[in-house]
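Tokens for chain A. Residues wanted.
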């Protein structure tokens, strides 16, 4: 070392440097050895100062501390300073090592070690390592006692810790025999072994520390494996067992942790432990120690660090093979099993205060007490206890241990605290705690020790509740994992290993409250925002639901079990599903945002985004799978509870409360949750990825729901089929189950399809239910055929089209394919081409015919339906296919067995004459029996409105237009079908004829009806009314067909034959057969009125020749007074109208009368004078008859008006009016006035017409009486009453006709000249083109009458009005016959109503408004006595 000139003596302020520098020698040192930064250290001074004997330890310690700080803060400068000269560097290392070995101050030793380690770690000082190792070698070789090697061993451990590669280097040299270092290292190993047995735990701790660092290197550990096996293993276990100081315990556990990383050392240690335990019952040799026992003792210590380290070591062992090593820990027991602890206490009562029990083996001897503590309980018991700790690390470590231990069945058979049975354990633990209290605390305060933590599954629940309040997500995950693992293992053992069942008297949870707490903890966990925690929570919920029966102990051998809290289970399932839905939605919301943020031109970013998206989909799939597994377990739970009577409902529910806490409500919730959450989530996930495991669970859930909610299985199956689940399941089978792969998925898919198909076929959509025999047949067919189907749709169609010989198994598969397509199509799931499917089904049917087979009824029904649905409008089936179908149909006893209601199926049968001729009648009958539409509303719909037809009827109408011959089948249906069906057919035909006036079918219908009627009269001539209940419906249709003839037509021979047959039919009926008579009378009436005059005469002659018909009319008319307000009112109306028509035709044509018809005139007048309620139409019909009789002056050859039996002799003045009397005339007038006051338009028209005929009749016989009747003051009041019906009421036809009548008879007191002018002025202001023909005709008659009587005051207005009327008169004359010779329009409309529906007579007030434009909805009958004085007294009128 160079010497420099003497330095200046130290001046003031250099006290700190004086301490660091050796003043007497520093001036000789070169400046290069001086550290240029603070602290101002001189390496040369340090070399001379530190070994000096006269330097105090404190100063040496300060120098080392400053050097250490400089080395830490200025490592490069210090390294540069030391590395200037290798000899100086080596000398410095040797000096520090010597100081390390010679100084007794522990703090100086630590500083020396720290400085040496830091120096050897510097980049330019690698050579110092060998120098230091040489020093260590010398020291160890020359050390007379192992105790003196403590510092050296500690230094070696720190060196290997700082430089891990040093361990490999040392061990490699140790493994190279013949090398110099081999001899040194071998001696070091021997020295380490001696240090391990040296009775000084400090030395032992250093040795263990060094060993731990050596074995931390995998290479070194492999080389030293023989050393461990032969020498170290027993010594180490013995040292660990006997360690008392925490330092030694920690270092031993550190070494153990390093050893337990390797399977080889784990096997060695556990084998040694097994030998030690086997020798325990005899006489264990000294030094033999069991690792499980040692770790159990450490686990029982009160030091949390040791407890955590022990748990880590147990976990490290079990990780290698839980099934292999877990039994050793479960069986581990404290040596000797019994430790007799004797304590001297001044107050023996402390024991009872602490334990709280008396069942303790205790011996009291004066003031001494002996307590025997039993410590034979398994190690997991204590791990469960640690779960109540406040240390997160200890809880996490205990979780890990218990998770691995739970993989061993003995964990559940030996550790009863898993099930909450901890009474014996608590007793033993109480003794243990008491021992610690006496030994350590010397306290009599037992209150803190009297509360013992829960153990077993309940401890896990409590621990979960506490840990969820912490922010340690790893703790949350491990706790949930342990909870799930315990429940899963318990359920598996109970299910598969009966000899390891849990104790019969023990349940997993001891109370419902604990079970509820577990559910709440799981709900809180699954709601965690951390996905990993939520995922573990979902798995835990799944395990909880799967093992729920074992949790509450619900088994037949348990007499007392807690009630099933379905409300809590529902909340748990809802929380799980909601979290899954939230997670799925979160990923969907994030995906567009991430895609938007990625540059479009960045390929690398695009790949990264794709990978992220795939990972997100995978995470969502896993989460969804766990959720579905949990939901499936909930479904299994519901299925299992169905066979348990005690689980149907919670017996503690209040009687008045809603039955929500029942199995039925829980089952319906599962169905609803699956429909609203599970299915949408799965279908959304399927859009991005398909996982066989997920779909297997999903389909098993759907299958379970069929069993859980049996009353909803059909409805649920229909919804699934309509949602394309048949297609989905077939695609899954085709994609994953071909070539015998994914057999479990194939089984689940087949089972799901099997039950869904059976449900759909049991309650079919549009066909009759199959018999039990058919269900059994199709069940066997599906059971054998569905598992074979694993092909895609084109392949299935090709297989179905195979015309070669098909064997049994293949035929079953074909039938299954047809049924699947049928069920899919009937629920609008058309996933194959219709044309291809039609060809395949045709080939299938031809193949059956070729092989002489008959398809099952359900399969044949499916085939026909598919052919009908897939049939192209332009391409008809081959004759061979149609022939085959007909042969198959002929072999079926009832067509309803293969019928499916659909318009296209009806078109299919009616499109082929070969099928229509044979099966058309039955098919149409089935179609009408199944067609579901409001026929009454359809029949009541107005023709002008034309509401939209139902789809089925629209299709039928199209067929009727294209093939009118179908009408003949419909007529037969009306005649031969049940009444309900026949009425549907009738309404259908009515609607068709009303909507399709261009279709000429009258001749077709009449001809066929004539044949039916002739056949009926021949076979049932005596009583045709009993032949068919549907005959009135046919007659009603015939009347409707007659009404369709708007223009007058000549009656041909067929029409005449029909008239004759219908009249003959009527003659054979009685008045009670109104169902037949009503439509027959209508037909006869309209046949007379809708033809030419010449044909009218011929028709009337035919009808008048039927004496039985005339006799029947007489009988019916005789019932007028008795049946006026009965259901026969409509028949009476038709009879009076028909009689009036017969009388008019006979009188006009002078036709021969074969039978007269007698009518009592008094009865007719009485019916008009005293009408009953709701008989306005009947009164109008009688007035029509009376008008006809008055017009004929009662001289009809057909109708004879006979007096009543009690009529007095006529007065002389009555002979002029005969057959009427004066009183009868007055009574008739009063009756007509009263009827007019009702302001009913229909009745008013009839009354005015009858009054006109009456006045004509009276004027011809006694003009004075006619003038007196017309000039009655009452008439003015009557006219004003009628005019008081609203604005322009004078333009109503009946009022115009009435005013015309008053003008004609010059009744100026009734209608003055000024009032006539006022009416004409009102007419002139009216747009005449808007008036109806009837009104125009009545107005023209009124104007002409006024003109004739010379009452026109304003000639200019009269000329204008006359011109307007003459311009419109042509159309009026062409449109209608003279008013006096026609039926009133409103009454004609009523006659139409009678034809369409005889019930119309009972609903006159509901007739269409457009028919009676001025109708009033309310009216009352005005009595003569109620007239005002203005009109004169009633007595004056009758005088």
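Reply:
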């Amino acid at each position: 070392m160079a010497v420099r000139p003497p330095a200046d003596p130290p001046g003031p302020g250099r006290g700190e440097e004086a301490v660091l520098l050796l003043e007497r020698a520093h001036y000789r040192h070169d400046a290069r050895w001086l550290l240029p930064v603070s602290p101002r250290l001189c390496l040369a001074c340090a070399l001379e100062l530190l070994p000096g004997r006269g330097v105090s330890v404190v100063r040496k310690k300060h120098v080392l501390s400053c050097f250490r700080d400089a080395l830490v803060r200025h490592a490069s400068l210090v390294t540069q300073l030391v590395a200037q000269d290798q000899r100086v560097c080596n000398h410095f290392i040797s000096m520090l090592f010597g100081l390390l070995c010679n100084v007794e101050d522990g703090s100086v030793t630590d500083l020396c070690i720290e400085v040496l380690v830091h120096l050897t770690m510097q980049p330019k000082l690698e050579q110092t390592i060998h120098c230091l190792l040489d020093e260590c070698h010398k020291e160890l070789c020359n050390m007379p006692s192992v105790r003196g090697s403590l510092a050296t061993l500690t230094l070696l451990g720190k060196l290997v810790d700082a430089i891990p590669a040093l361990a490999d280097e040392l061990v490699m040299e140790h493994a190279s025999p013949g090398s110099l270092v081999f001899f040194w290292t071998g001696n070091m190993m021997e020295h380490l072994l001696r240090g391990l047995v040296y009775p000084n735990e400090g030395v032992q701790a250093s040795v263990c520390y060094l060993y731990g660092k050596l074995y931390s290197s995998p290479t070194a550990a492999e080389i030293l494996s023989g050393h461990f096996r032969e020498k170290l293993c027993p010594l180490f276990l013995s040292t660990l067992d006997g360690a008392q100081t925490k330092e030694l315990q920690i270092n031993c556990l550190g070494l153990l942790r390093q050893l337990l990383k390797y399977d080889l050392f784990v096997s060695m240690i556990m084998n040694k432990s097994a030998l030690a335990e086997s020798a325990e019952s005899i006489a264990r040799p000294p030094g033999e120690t069991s690792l499980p026992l040692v770790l159990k003792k450490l686990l029982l210590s009160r030091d949390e660090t040791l407890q955590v380290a022990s748990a880590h070591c147990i976990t490290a062992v079990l990780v290698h093979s839980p099934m292999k090593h877990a039994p050793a820990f479960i069986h581990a027991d404290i040596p000797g099993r019994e430790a007799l602890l004797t304590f001297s206490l001044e107050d023996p009562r402390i024991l009872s205060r602490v334990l709280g029990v008396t069942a303790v083996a205790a011996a009291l001897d004066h003031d001494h007490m002996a307590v025997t503590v039993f410590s034979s309980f398994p190690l997991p018991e204590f791990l469960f206890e640690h779960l109540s700790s406040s240390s997160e690390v200890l809880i996490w470590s205990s979780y890990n241990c218990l998770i691995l231990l739970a993989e061993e069945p003995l964990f559940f058979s030996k550790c009863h605290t898993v099930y909450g049975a901890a009474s014996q354990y608590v007793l033993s633990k109480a003794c243990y705690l008491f021992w610690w209290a006496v030994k350590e605390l010397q306290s009599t305060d037992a209150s803190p020790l009297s509360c013992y933590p829960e153990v077993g599954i309940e401890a896990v629940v409590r621990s979960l509740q506490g840990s969820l309040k912490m922010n340690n997500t790893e703790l949350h995950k491990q706790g949930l994992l342990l909870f799930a693992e315990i429940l899963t293992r318990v359920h598996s053992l109970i299910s598969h290993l009966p000899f390891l069942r849990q104790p019969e008297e023990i349940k997993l949870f001891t109370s419902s409250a604990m079970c509820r707490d577990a559910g709440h903890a799981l709900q809180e966990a699954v709601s965690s925002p951390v996905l990993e925690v939520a995922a573990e929570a979902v798995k835990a919920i799944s395990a909880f639901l799967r093992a729920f029966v074992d949790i509450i102990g619900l088994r037949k051998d348990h007499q007392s079990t807690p009630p099933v809290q379905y409300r809590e289970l529902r909340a748990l399932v809802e929380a799980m599903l909601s979290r899954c839905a939230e997670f799925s939605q979160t990923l969907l919301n994030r995906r567009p945002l991430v895609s938007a943020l990625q540059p479009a031109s960045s390929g690398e970013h695009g790949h990264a985004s794709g990978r992220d998206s795939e990972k997100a989909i995978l995470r969502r799939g896993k989460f969804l799978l766990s959720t579905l597994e949990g939901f499936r377990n909930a479904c299994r739970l519901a299925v299992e509870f169905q066979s348990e009577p005690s689980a149907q409902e919670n017996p503690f529910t209040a009687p008045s409360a809603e039955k929500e806490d029942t199995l039925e409500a829980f089952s319906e919730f599962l169905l609803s949750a699956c429909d609203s959450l599970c299915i949408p989530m799965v279908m959304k996930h399927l859009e991005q990825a398909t996982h066989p495991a997920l779909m297997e669970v999903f389909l098993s859930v759907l299958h379970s729901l069929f069993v859980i909610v049996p009353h909803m299985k059909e409805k649920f199956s229909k919804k699934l089929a309509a949602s394309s689940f048949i297609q989905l399941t077939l695609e899954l089978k085709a994609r994953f189950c071909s070539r015998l792969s994914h057999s479990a998925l194939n089984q689940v898919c087949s089972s799901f399809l099997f039950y869904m198909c059976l449900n759909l076929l049991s309650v079919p959509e549009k066909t009759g239910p199959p018999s039990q025999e058919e269900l059994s047949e199709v069940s066997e067919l599906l059971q054998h055929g569905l598992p074979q189907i694993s092909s895609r749709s084109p392949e299935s169609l090709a297989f179905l089209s195979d015309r070669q010989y098909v064997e049994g198994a293949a035929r079953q598969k074909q039938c299954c394919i047809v049924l699947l397509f049928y069920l899919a199509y009937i629920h609008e799931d058309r996933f194959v081409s219709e044309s291809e499917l039609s060809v395949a089904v045709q080939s299938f049917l031809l193949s059956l015919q070729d092989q002489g087979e008959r398809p099952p009824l359900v399969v044949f029904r499916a085939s026909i339906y598919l052919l009908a649905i897939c049939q192209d409008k332009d391409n008809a089936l081959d004759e061979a296919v149609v022939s085959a179908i007909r042969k198959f149909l002929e072999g079926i006893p009832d067509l309803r067995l293969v019928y499916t209601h659909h318009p296209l199926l009806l078109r299919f049968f009616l499109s082929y004459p070969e099928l229509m001729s044979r099966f058309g009648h039955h098919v149409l009958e089935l179609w009408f029996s199944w067609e579901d539409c409001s026929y009454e509303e359809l029949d009541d719909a107005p023709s002008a409105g034309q509401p939209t037809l139902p789809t089925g009827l629209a299709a039928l109408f199209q067929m009727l237009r294209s093939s009118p011959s179908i009408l003949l089948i419909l007529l037969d249906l009306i005649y031969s079908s049940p009444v309900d069906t026949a009425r549907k057919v009738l309404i259908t035909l009515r609607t068709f004829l009303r909507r399709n006036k261009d279709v000429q079918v009258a001749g077709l219908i009449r001809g066929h009806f004539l044949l039916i009627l002739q056949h009926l009269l021949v076979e049932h001539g005596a009583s045709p009314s009993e032949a068919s209940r549907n005959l009135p419906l046919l007659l009603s249709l015939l009347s409707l067909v007659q009404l369709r003839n708007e223009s007058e037509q000549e009656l041909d021979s067929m029409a005449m034959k029909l008239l004759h047959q219908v009249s003959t039919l009527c003659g054979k009926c009685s008045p009670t057969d109104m169902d037949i008579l009503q439509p027959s009378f209508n037909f006869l009436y309209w046949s007379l009125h809708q033809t030419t005059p010449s044909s009218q005469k011929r028709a009337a002659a035919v009808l008048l020749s039927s004496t039985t018909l005339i006799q029947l009319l007489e009988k019916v008319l005789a019932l007028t007074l008795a049946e006026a307000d009965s259901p026969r009112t409509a028949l009476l109306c038709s009879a009076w109208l028909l009689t009036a028509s017969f009388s008019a035709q006979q009188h006009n044509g002078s036709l021969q009368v074969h039978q007269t018809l007698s009518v009592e005139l008094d009865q007719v007048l009485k019916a008009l004078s005293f009408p009953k309620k709701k008989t306005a139409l009947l009164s109008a019909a009688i007035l029509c008859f009376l008008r006809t009789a008055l017009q004929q002056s009662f001289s009809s050859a057909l109708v004879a008006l006979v007096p009543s039996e009690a009529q007095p002799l006529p007065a002389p003045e009555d002979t002029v009016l005969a057959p009427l009397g004066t009183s009868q005339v007055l009574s008739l007038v009063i009756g007509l006035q009263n009827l007019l006051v009702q302001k009913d338009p229909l009745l008013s028209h009839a009354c005015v017409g009858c009054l006109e005929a009456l006045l004509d009749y009276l004027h011809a016989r006694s003009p004075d009486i006619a003038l007196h009747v017309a000039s009655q003051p009452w008439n003015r009041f009557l006219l004003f009453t009628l005019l008081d019906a609203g604005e322009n009421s004078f333009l109503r036809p009946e009022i115009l006709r009435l005013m015309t009548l008053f003008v004609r008879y010059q009744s100026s007191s009734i209608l003055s000249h000024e009032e006539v002018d006022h009416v004409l002025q009102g007419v002139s202001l009216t747009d005449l083109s808007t008036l109806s023909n009837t009104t125009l005709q009545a107005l023209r008659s009124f104007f002409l009458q006024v003109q004739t009587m010379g009452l026109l005051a304003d000639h200019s207005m009269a000329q204008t009005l006359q011109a307007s009327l003459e311009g419109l008169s042509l159309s009026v004359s062409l449109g209608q016959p003279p008013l006096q010779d026609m039926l009133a329009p409103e009454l004609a409309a009523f006659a139409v109503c009678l034809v369409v529906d005889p019930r119309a007579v009972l609903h006159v007030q509901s007739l269409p408004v457009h028919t009676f434009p001025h109708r009033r909805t309310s009216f009352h009958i005005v009595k003569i006595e109620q007239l005002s004085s203005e009109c004169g007294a009633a007595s004056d009128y009758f005088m």
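DSSP finds 67 helices and five strands in the chain. The CA atoms of residues 223 and 1370 lie 132 Å apart.
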